[in-house]
Amino acid sequence: MSHVGHADxxxxxxxxxxxxxxxxxLPADDVRxxxxxxAERALDLPELSQARTVAAYVSVGSEPGTLALLDTLHTxxxxxxxPVLLPDNDLDWGVYxxxxxxxxxxxxxxxxxxxxxxxxxxxxxxxxxxxxxxPGLAVDARGMRLGRGGGSYxxxxxxxxxxxxxxxxxxxxxxxxxxxxVPAEAHDRPVHAVVxxxxxxxxxxGV
Length: 207
What we know:
By secondary structure, the chain is α/β, with parallel strands linked by helices. It is built from 5 helices and 11 strands.
């Protein structure tokens, strides 16, 4: 195991599988109700209420829902950037201008994603964001995030660091996904805050 931390930390793949199994059992009504609660909580965050540009993502399946949040940010005049998955798993970006600006794209055998249909801005566009909403499966007491393992957002975080950009990093999760500890590697960065339906938790280690 090549992560830094305690020997009794769960393996990332095992933890991912457990969380995805639980998410997959969630009733659709619960997923919708959670999306509304998350939007309400997240919109009170200064990191979002005061942002001019937010890099976000469109939730898929049983992920904590983001569409209500994206629509409200757009209505408020916030410039919302959404990712476009590239063949090498890096991310390009486009601007969200409402539900009609999304198209369903299937990348190989993966789940179809909703991506912005407008002009591509390039992978470096994310460096202009005041806040970045990161997808995740869990976050721990240190603010360390467990992602899905594709590496796309590792590249995003590395790109931000290389550019000297310091946006607020925020994760949206279900309440049980805030855990005691997740495996962490040397390149992993803590986030500033996690938003769940029951509230917001901040992490002083977020950089």
